[in-house]
Amino acid sequence: MPIPYVDTIARVNYSEIDQMGVVYHARYAVWLDVARTEYLRQAGMSYRELEATGLFLVVGDLTMRYHRPARYDDVVNVRCWVRELASRRVTFAYRLTHAERGTLLVTAETRMLSLNHQFEPTRLPAGVAALLHVTPDPA
What we know:
It contains three helices and five strands, in the order βααββββα. By secondary structure, it is an alpha+beta fold. Strand 3 and strand 4 form a beta hairpin. The longest helix is centred in the N-terminal third of the chain and has 19 residues.
């Protein structure tokens, strides 16, 4: 059964904030990676298994829009889904919200390129593409 999206949770620890007391911008990219790999796992294939097929999914493009900051000890919900699927690319979208208040913190997107182990562009194998279901942006 296809999964429309995956939610992961991150609690902001002290090492993730900057001098202004908000989450350092690069930390969000780590949370996106965690959510994306969890999406793959719940869809039926861990990233380790994906690499064993001879495929890498590498970030070709990353965009983030910051709406509100997360702060120390906040609980952040990271929702991840597949926005677009092409023969050599998959686009994941993300919506990060304050888990307790529901406040929108960040929206993001990663365009992942399909490469073989020689780092050459390659088509997504049919078995991998079958796990990735495009979902309209969930509210």
